[in-house]
Amino acid sequence: MISQLLNDPLIAPLWAFALLSLAVFVLTVWRSIEASQFDVNKLPKLLDTLVLQKLVPLAILGVAAKTVSDATVGDALVVAYIAGIVAASAAEVRQLIDAVKGDTFPAEIAMTDSPDG
Which of 10, 24, 27, 107 has its CA 20 to 30 A from that of 97? Predict the structure, then answer.
């Protein structure tokens, strides 16, 4: 049942989103190392903010959409799941572009302990 769920076409966008999130995470860490602002103690918070806070709710919504028995509720969950994936992916692509260009770190993550960045 688990392998069937993981190979489901509805779950495929979640895998793509996870890859986008991990790419943003890796590029953000790399850019902070390049800028000599990297703090290894900030990695858990960075992983939580850039990946887990977005991925986990979408995964729960996707699993709920596949496992709910009521068709109407299932359809509503699928619509919410797809809308969430689209919105989160759009934001993630924007962060990926910023990370590739090296323009900015996410505002909610200060890579140093100093108040100015």
Answer: 10
CB atoms within 10 A of CB 23: 16
pLDDT in tens, 88-107: 999 989 988 887 887 655 54
Which tokens in the block code for residue 67? Answer: 């496992």
Longest CA–CA span in the chain (Å) reads 53
Residues in the chain: 117
What are the extents of the domains in the chain? 2-101
Predicted confidence (pLDDT) per residue in 20-56, tens digit? 888 888 888 888 888 788 788 888 887 888 788 888 8
d(C-alpha 14, C-alpha 16), whole Å: 5
In this structure, are residues 19 and 93 in contact, taking their beta carbons and an 8 Å threshold? no
Q: Helix 71-101 crosses helix 12-34 at what angle (to 10 degrees)?
A: 20
